[in-house]
Design brief:
about 230 residues, 10 strands, Nucleotidyltransferase, domain 5, 2 domains, 6 helices
Length: about 230
């Protein structure tokens, strides 16, 4: 059984799966309370399935980009469990988790997260010849710059302002296939499925070296003394 952990934005999600097939899932609005809400919700999810933490055989974690606090909580919990239980760990990009539900639509998928200061975090994914591929790596940019690089109909999903969506629609017209509302809700069940695909190929992360994917430095940093 796998445990998937995603606390990368104000909406958090957990899932239990068996070889990537969803067993149980919980998604809730965590706000900034990831630290105090993650473990209790994890225990609740396990209890619902009459399972114990020692039944978990591997951990899948969303590794960013996302909020600094959400990243810290997710990675610390996932690494701690992997160490304590002696099980495998896999880290998956948050943007890939957001894009994956639309893999079978036949178009490139462009997930977007607000990154602050008029910037967005984004990437481009598509299923081609039956294989899910990352076409561009995760990076920060602006909506204007992103629009200038879109040359074909593309599915857009994610978490940006209404003004951002309007800007995409105005710049791209029919090339912008925008997913809004509850359809864009990020679910740990998709994270579990992506994680299992990695596990099947024997591709695991080392808990010692797995790093969060920030793309940008945290808003609050400590200045070092020279």
């Amino acid at each position: 059984m796998e445990l998937a952990i995603d606390t990368l934005t104000r909406v958090a999600s957990l899932a239990l799966s068996n070889k990537g097939a969803l067993i149980a899932e919980i998604t809730w609005y965590a706000g900034q309370n990831h630290t105090v809400e993650l473990v209790p919700n994890m225990m609740t999810l396990l209890e619902q399935r009459k399972a114990h933490i020692h039944d978990v055989e591997s951990i899948v974690v969303a590794k960013g980009p996302g909020s600094f606090n959400g990243l810290r909580v997710a990675l610390a919990t996932a690494k701690g469990l992997a160490f304590a239980l002696g099980i495998h760990l896999v880290g998956i990009s948050t943007l890939e988790v957001m894009a994956f539900p639309y893999a079978d639509l036949g178009f490139p998928v462009c997930p977007i997260l607000y990154a602050g200061r008029s910037e967005i975090a984004t990437a481009l994914f598509q299923k081609r010849k039956g294989h899910w591929e990352r076409l561009t790596v995760e990076h920060t940019t602006t909506i204007d710059d992103l629009c200038s690089r879109i040359g074909q109909p593309t599915v857009f999903c994610g978490e940006i302002s209404d003004e951002g969506w309007m800007q995409l629609e105005q710049r791209l017209g029919k090339k912008a296939l925008i997913v809004k509302g509850s359809a864009v809700l990020r679910r740990a069940g998709y994270l579990a499925e992506l994680g299992w695909q990695r596990m099947e190929s024997g591709d695991f992360d080392d808990p010692f070296t797995l790093q969060p994917l920030y793309l940008k430095s945290p808003a609050i940093t400590v200045k070092t003394l020279s």
